[in-house]
Amino acid sequence: MSKYFSIKELTYSNTAVRYGIDNTPTKEVLNNLNVLALFLDKVREMWGKPLIVNSGYRSPELNKRVGGVHNSNHLKGEAVDLTTGNKSDNIKLFNMIKNSSLDFDELIDEKKGSWVHLAYRKVGNRRKVLSL
């Protein structure tokens, strides 16, 4: 069990609610979300303050609705978009993760600190870092 993140938090979507999209994860996705949540606990501990999940798991229909890429880690429950609440701290969070020894798959500074995309897999993490 994650200390800081719930499955409800990692699957909630305003867009899904607004458009009546079922965003219930499969058993496999749920397992991935539990692994992701434990990884996020490490990030939260390093950061030392709460982090807000903007987007976690996305069902295929939800991913399409929000314009996500067809092979998004969000579809597998292996990615989350986070914010600290402000752009300058989001950039600090991005740099903290980038410069850490954490074994992440993908780290993206989205829209100059608007949010941080962070992906983690059980195996095969690439430590891919991007700014979009």
Q: What would you say about this model in short?
A:
This protein is of the alpha+beta class and 132 residues long.
Description of the molecule:
The chain is of the alpha+beta class. 38% of the residues lie in helices and 17% in strands. The chain contains 5 helices and 5 strands. A 5-stranded mixed beta sheet has the order 1-2-4-3-5. A hairpin with a 4-residue loop joins β3 and β4 (115-119). The longest helix has 21 residues, at 27-47. 31% of the residues are buried.
Helix and strand arrangement:
Blueprint: H1 7-11, H2 14-19, H3 27-47, E1 52-55, H4 60-65, E2 79-83, H5 87-98, E3 106-110, E4 115-119, E5 128-131
Parallel strand pairs: 3-5
Antiparallel strand pairs: 1-2, 2-4, 3-4
Task: Identify the strand order in the major beta sheet.
Answer: 1-2-4-3-5
Order of helices and strands: HHHEHEHEEE
Radius of gyration: 14 Å
Number of helices: 5
The total of beta strands comes to 5
Biggest β-sheet description: 5 strands, mixed
Q: Specify the overall morphology.
A: globular
For this entry, what is the oligomeric state of its chains?
A: single chain
Give the uncertain stretches in residue-range form.
none
Beta-strand content bin: 15-25%
- What structural category arises from helix and sheet content? alpha+beta
Helicity, in percent? 25-40%
In whole angstroms, the N-to-C terminal distance is 32 Å
The overall pLDDT average reads 97
